[in-house]
Specification:
alpha/beta, six-stranded mixed β-sheet, three-stranded antiparallel β-sheet, 9 helices
C-alpha cells in the first residue's frame, strides 16, 4: 500500500479502507470505487494466551496486546467491535505495534508502545510472555495455548451482522484522481471487477464483497466512526464525500 499512498506509483489497485480514509484526510489524490476486494469476519482476529486461565473480552483492559500497526484495518474493526459489543474501554488496553502507518503524514498516538519483532511472529512473542494477546488474521490454528478473546467468534459475528447489518469490509478498489476524471475508464474498471466477482464461487452465507454505495453505506459509516473514535482520522466524514459523482453512481 505504501507505494500507492506515499509515491503515487499506481493508477489503480486495492487499498485497505482505513488507509484510504487517512489518505483522503491528508489530501492524497485517490478516489474510492464502491467495490470490495476483501472482507471477512473480524471477531476471531484477537487471540490471547490462555495458559493462565480464560478471560472475557472486558478483562482485556489493562493487558498488553500486540498488533502489526495501530492503523491496520483489521485492528480498527476489532477494537470497534470490542467497544460496541462487549463494553471494552479500548483506551485501557496497552497497545503495542511494530509497523509504521502507510500514510506518512499520520502520526501514531503517543500512548502506543513500539517494539521489534526480532525475527519472531506476533504469536510467538505472546507465547514468550511479551503480550497477553495479539491481533492477527484469525484464530491461531493447532495451538492449545491460545484462544479467541471473543467466544464462538463466527457465531458472534453472524449474530452481530444480523442485528446491525454491518459487513466488515477490509480492502476496496481505488483509482488515482486523474483516472477518476475518465468516466469511460472508471466504468470499464468497475465492469471488469463486477465480472470477476460473478466468476467467483457464490458466498456461502454473507456476501463480503459488497458493490455499490448503498450496499456499502452501513459498513462505511461504521468504519468511519471507528476510525475517528480511535484517532485514525481527525474528523468525522460522510460516506458520500468518499466518492465522486461518477463513482457514486457505479453499481446503482
Amino acid at each position: 500500500f505504501k507505494p500507492m499512498v506515499r509515491e503515487g506509483k499506481f493508477d489503480a489497485g486495492e487499498l485497505a479502507i482505513v488507509t484510504f480514509l487517512q489518505a483522503k484526510c491528508h489530501g492524497k489524490p485517490l478516489t474510492l470505487l464502491p467495490a470490495t476486494m476483501v472482507g471477512r469476519w473480524q471477531h476471531a482476529c484477537i487471540n490471547y494466551d490462555c495458559r493462565n486461565g480464560d478471560i472475557t473480552p472486558k478483562q482485556i483492559e489493562g493487558k498488553r496486546v500486540g498488533v502489526r500497526a495501530y492503523s491496520q484495518t483489521t485492528g480498527v474493526w476489532v477494537r470497534g467491535i470490542l467497544g460496541d459489543e462487549y463494553g471494552v474501554d479500548i483506551k485501557k488496553v496497552k497497545w503495542a505495534t511494530y509497523e509504521e502507518p502507510h500514510v506518512a503524514e499520520y502520526k501514531d498516538p503517543a500512548f502506543l508502545e513500539k517494539f521489534d519483532l526480532a525475527g519472531k511472529s506476533l504469536e510467538q512473542l505472546m507465547f514468550d510472555g511479551r503480550f497477553d494477546g495479539v491481533i492477527v488474521g484469525g484464530p491461531i490454528p493447532n495451538e492449545p495455548r491460545a484462544k479467541t478473546l471473543i467466544p464462538e467468534p463466527d457465531k458472534a459475528a453472524a449474530d452481530w451482522n444480523r442485528r446491525t447489518g454491518i459487513v466488515p469490509v477490509n480492502h476496496l478498489f481505488v483509482v488515482s484522481d486523474e483516472v477518476a476524471k475518465r468516466t469511460d475508464v472508471v466504468q470499464e474498471i468497475f465492469r471488469m471487477l463486477v465480472e470477476t466477482k460473478k466468476a467467483a464461487p457464490p458466498p456461502k452465507s454473507v456476501d463480503f464483497l459488497l458493490y455499490g454505495v448503498e450496499p456499502l453505506r452501513k459498513s462505511l459509516e461504521t468504519i468511519i466512526r471507528y476510525s475517528y473514535e480511535q484517532q485514525m482520522i481527525p474528523r468525522m466524514m460522510t460516506v458520500d464525500e468518499l466518492f465522486t459523482p461518477v463513482t457514486k453512481k457505479l453499481g446503482a
